[in-house]
Amino acid sequence: MSDLRGFAGKRLALVESMLHDAFYDGIHAARDQGCEIWLLVKGEEWYTSGRPLAEHPLGRVDKVLHVDTHDWRAVADAVSDGDGKPLVDGILSFSDYHTEATARAADHLGLPSQGLGAVRAANHKHLLRAALGDDPANVRWRLVTVLEELDEAIHHVGLPCIAKPPSEAISYGVRKCRTRDEAMAAWRELNAVRASLRGQPRPGHVLFEEYAEGVEVSVESMTVEGRTHFFGVTSKELHGTTMLEEAHSFPVALEPAVHQELLACVDRVLTAIGYRQGPAHTEVMLTADGPRVVEVNPRLPAHMISTMVADVCGTNPHLDAKLLALGMPVAPGTPGQGRTGGAAVVVLFPDRPGELTAIHGIPEAEALGVQVIPHAAPGDTVATRLDNSASVGFAYAHAATAEEALGTAREAAARIRIDTREEGR
User: Fold this and answer.
1) Are 311 and 336 in contact (CB under 8 A)?
2) What is the pTM (predicted TM-score) of this model?
3) What is the DSSP string of 323-348?
4) For the chain, which ranges sit under pLDDT 70?
5) Would you state the pLDDT for residue 390?
6) CA 329 to CA 317: how far, in whole Å?
């Protein structure tokens, strides 16, 4: 276990936040240990849906600074004095859209960071592909910048293939293309997107990748002084015919040889991009020919995966990541040290987009011993985009094994009904 006394008297700047309780709870857990938290945000509406920030968990930090969080210079200036000396002991972001600006600001201020080059390679997926080079965990790929490059890209990567924006998150814009016509449609759709979900300009490039057939998992890790500690492997199950993540369990039971090969693969990937420190959530496809890297996320995972890690490993990845950002030592846990042998979460999606009117069946679901965590309320507009933001809550369970926990979480989720109505009706 890490020594949490390292938080006392320290000041940590957080640049934006991921959504949902696990990330908010991680902030307040650090504050409970004596750490002063400064929150830098470009705008509050991303989190509050028009409600006052004071009513939101993020409003209970020690200081809120309104800053252009897309601009690393503005971020650095906000946390430094007139002489350019940092006013904080560390700076960190778990928001995919801000980890790069944060790493650059940290390097500029001489504060601990994951490494700008590493974060940039993880965030811009074509740079990750280039960094992996001939590694067997890489896949065939092409970055298509103009329409005239599309046919050569399809010929190189083959069909079916995956099309995606090279610099997006939460599965936004990921398309499986079975034919050239579908690839063309994906190009036209994604090339027309000229801003990220957080408003950053994008050139309209589209990354086409070889489709790797297999079982997708994610590897949860914490890198300390250039050495990577592995918490374990998380299952990843997709929702219906979409590419959305619908359920997870931890830790996945794999054959020892497969497990060893998988961890060695992720270790090579993080080394290839020069990842210095901090959490990583690396998505990998287990194929008949070995592991193939899907992407690296230089942050803690969403969908309560960090909660599963905490419950199974007896550690708190949110606190460990913050300690590292403050330059303090950490001692991550391993499976078997926590309060349960396995955990699972089922993501709750509505059947159709619209105004959320009610969530039925929560008491019936919780009668099974699960925790139901809604993050949308009646009156909210939900599922307006086809990405992981379409969820309205989680059903969370733990048990002796991950498989048992997943079965319970699925049974609980089946008792829940989510009602929506078309907006304006």
Assistant:
1) no
2) 0.95
3) HHHTT-------TTSSS-SEEEEEEE
4) 240-243, 423-425
5) 82
6) 13
pLDDT of residue 241: 63
Closest by CA position to 332, among listed 224, 185, 197? 224
Using CA atoms, how far residue 146 sits from 150, 152, 184, 203, in Å, is 7, 11, 12, 10
Range list of H helices, 145-286? 150-157, 180-191, 256-272
From residue 177, alpha-carbon distances to 111, 127, 182, 416 in Å are 43, 22, 5, 33
Question: What phi and psi, each to the nearest 5 degrees, are found at residue 135?
Answer: -55, 135
Q: What is the DSSP string of 252-298?
A: ----HHHHHHHHHHHHHHHHHTT--SEEEEEEEEEETTEEEEEEEES
- Quick one: pLDDT at residue 242? 66
Compute CA distances 330 → 225, 324, 339, whole Å.
10, 7, 20
Residue showing tokens 């960090």: 306
- Contact (Cβ atoms closer than 8 angstroms) between residue 349 and residue 391: yes
pLDDT tens digits along 315-333: 999 999 999 999 999 999 8
| pLDDT value, residue 239 | 72
Contact at 8 Å (CB) between 209 and 161?
A: yes
Residue 68 has φ and ψ, to the nearest 5°, of: -75, 90
